[in-house]
Amino acid sequence: MTRRANKGDPGLVLLGIFVAMVVIPAILPAILTFAVYSVTVGVIGLIIFEIKTDRRPSVTTATEFYSAEDCSTLDSLMQQQDQLWERKARIYRDANQLGLLRTSQDPRRFDERRSLAKRFNAKLVKLDNEFATIISNVETLRSEIRDRCDAWSNQFEHWRFWSSGRLAFRVALVAYVVLVATLVVFNPSWVQNFSDTVSRYFLFPVTTFHDYYGAVVIASGVSAAVGALAGLFTFDHMDNRLPDEHDFYTKWFVGDSGEWLDKFVNSYWEYDHEDEEEHEFADGDPDWDGQSAEQLTWYEVLGVTPNASLTEIKDAYKEQIKQYHPDRVAALGPKLKALAEQETKALNAAYEEALKGMLAGLAHGNDRRRPR
């Protein structure tokens, strides 16, 4: 049969008896003496808190942390982000209509065996860089606003601590004076008996104040408790919440800029040819500057190496030029037809430059010379 465990540990009981019989009587004189002279501590504390308490930080609304210009700048940067998302989606839509293939290693990029794919990839890289710049500007602006808010919060917490402490000392001293005066005037018998008890344990008794020891000790304990409760209550209700702080934190604090950038850089679109709608490109696209072909060399346009042979150049030209044949782009919209026409002109110009370079090399007796 299992015995039930005792609820009380004998060791703890003995320790409690030892504390009650030895420790408390040993420290009781010091406690009572401190209680009698605690009013001096209260006065000194009040003086310190009066000196340390500054004026309340003068911010009543979150709009004081930023100017109208800051708000306008942030809205503009957010609009630019939305525009970049639209431009990136447009690039994938147009590439889909032109039949550009993705690379197996990175579905965000197109197979650069076609010169047009190089231009689309270059546009995507350009958009990623633009988005990174915008994110950097957003984070810089937000950091400035956050620093202002944090500086105010630190000032407010400093003022909150010292102000609530000052109130606690004020309440405690007022309660002390009222209680001492009341007990001394009425001087009930139980206070007289308590005064006799205090005088027996008091370290530095003064006969003149023998009858007031009880009143002073009682007033010290009660006023300390009242002052502490008043200070805690005030500290708890002096929060730094502002009327419009929800909108403020949503606008200036919510959102991880690094996560936004990663999401943009790693995003890509897949489109179904049957569901794809015609979309403006060419002169309607801010990414299209009309000079992309001129920025590429002839061998980049044709998709060959700089030292390609005449046969390789002709094969590459024929392979790419047929992609933009009028019969192939007849079903596309006018903007995409215009793009196909520009690509055709770029291929013809590159092929002509390659042939001129080849003939120039032959004229100088160097059949291995290639155009640059």
Would you mind describing this structure in some detail?
- The chain folds into two domains: 27-53 and 62-252, no CATH class; 289-363, Helix Hairpins (Orthogonal Bundle), CATH 1.10.287.110.
- The protein contains 13 helices and no strands.
- The protein has helices at 10-36, 38-52, 68-97, 115-186, 189-201, 213-237, 245-252, 257-265, 292-295, 298-302, 310-321, 326-329, 334-363.
- The chain is rod-shaped and about 125 Å long.
- The termini are far apart.
Uncertain stretches of 5 or more adjacent residues: 1-7, 272-293, 366-372
Largest sheet: none
User: What is the overall silhouette?
Assistant: rod-shaped
Query: H/E series, N to C?
Result: HHHHHHHHHHHHH
Gyration radius, to the nearest Å? Answer: 43 Å
In total, the number of domains comes to 2
**Number of distinct beta strands:** 0
Which whole number gives the mean pLDDT?
A: 77
Distance between the termini: 103 Å
Structural class: mainly alpha
Helix fraction, binned, reads 55-70%
- Share of β-strand residues: under 5%
Number of helices: 13
How would you concisely characterize the structure shown here?
The chain has 372 residues and is mainly α.
